């Protein structure tokens, strides 16, 4: 050690090492945990009035209503994919379970505010656990508080909180931080309860999101690089064995599920190098969050913020002569480990560089910042606190402004199309939600020019044509969508095409198929009943009318009398 780098005391059995970060001392934050909780509530209080964005949330709340009604599906979630029981590479059972419980506790999905309240509470839990985690790393109390306050209000993390499906990342953070805490406790106490709890939280993390695969390498970094534990001690070997057992339990359960992953390793390898610059883009959004997007794409995200952020990081670490280089490297490693899954997503599966994916990687950046000149300078701790509060208030303002973009579908997709103008999907989704038909048609044409094979685009294009009374012209687009994505809504509109062509058997088949998915659709059920009557199928009409009554769908009195019901 040089004279400018004081020796860091070794961690004792019961107390982690303290890392001196500021020359001044004496300023103590009163009730830091309470203040952090209040900060989360104040910043995210506006989200309680938000509705849905119609990006995935409508699937898990509205389209999955039948799945969410059945409590036994809490077990089924462990044997199916996320969006589709079979044709889905995503395996996230605990997220599905959270949506089931939330659905049943929210008047069967009608009370959307409860979903937003749960999201905010999960974020609060992550913030409080992070504060404890930083304490375990030996980071000073004031530094830990400031870093956690930045985490609580940072606008780049708002998607994980204000967007209902973003809870997958806050849930994951809660489980991984709990896993870290108990792993550290076990390494210091050898108590079996901490080993078992660390294994439990690791398993919960695995069943929340695939990113948890990188939790154990991150834990190794925390224990060995930052806390200087002996990597080959008996205690460490026991932990490694537990980690492997948890991974195998998750892997075997996932392997027995009814999912079929069609991700090609060749495609992952092909897209990996082009996706590497995402690291710079994400870094820029952490340090200079001025180009945030609700639906970001690599193509529409600038690099100069990221390059500036990288230079800033190097400078502020270099200027801190008292830095603990191993802690700084550990923070950088955690950032890269938790960001690594983003680089493995092939473009044909998901082209978006969503900001909620930064929720865990940001923790590594905060650890890195603890070793910077931002927290080791000539400022007294009181002045450091005051300066930090100015930054926090500024970031909170940016957060609340950006957060509004998640309030409703039109606002969301307007922001998406403005910040990602080259996204066919964003333009398509906005077009489908505008009342101005001319503007909608213009956006549909733009989306079609960008990518005519965009999923759902042919469906929306066909629906737009039907709204313009071009029913026959819509058929080829609806059939194209049905044959490529299998989107069930196509059947509803294809039934109208069939009726226009007087092909009543085909119309009946389309409606029967459609109702299998949207069982309570009044228009579809009524149309099918009328078709059975018009095609002289009284028995099928009677059976269907009884089915409608059972489902709580009103059958017109005249039709009841006609059927003798």
Task: Outline the structure in words.
This protein has helices at residues 32-44, 57-63, 65-69, 73-76, 93-104, 112-136, 141-153, 158-162, 167-189, 192-206, 215-226, 234-255, 265-275, 278-287, 304-318, 325-343, 361-369, 381-403, 409-419, 424-431, 437-450, 457-467, 471-484, 489-500, 504-517, 522-534, 538-550, 557-563. Helix 1 (32-44) packs antiparallel against helix 6. It is built from 28 helices and no strands. The longest helix has 25 residues, at 112-136. The protein is mainly alpha-helical.
**Major beta sheet, specifics?**
none
How many β-strand runs? Answer: 0
Mean pLDDT across residues: 92
Helix/sheet category? mainly alpha
Fraction of residues in helix: 55-70%
Helix segment count? 28
Terminal CA distance reads 91 Å
What's the overall geometry?
Answer: elongated
Topology pattern, helix = H, strand = E: HHHHHHHHHHHHHHHHHHHHHHHHHHHH
Rg, please?
A: 27 Å
Poorly predicted runs:
1-25
The share of residues in extended strands comes to: under 5%
Can you summarize this structure?
The protein is mainly alpha-helical and 565 residues long. The chain has helices at 32-44, 57-63, 65-69, 73-76, 93-104, 112-136, 141-153, 158-162, 167-189, 192-206, 215-226, 234-255, 265-275, 278-287, 304-318, 325-343, 361-369, 381-403, 409-419, 424-431, 437-450, 457-467, 471-484, 489-500, 504-517, 522-534, 538-550, 557-563.
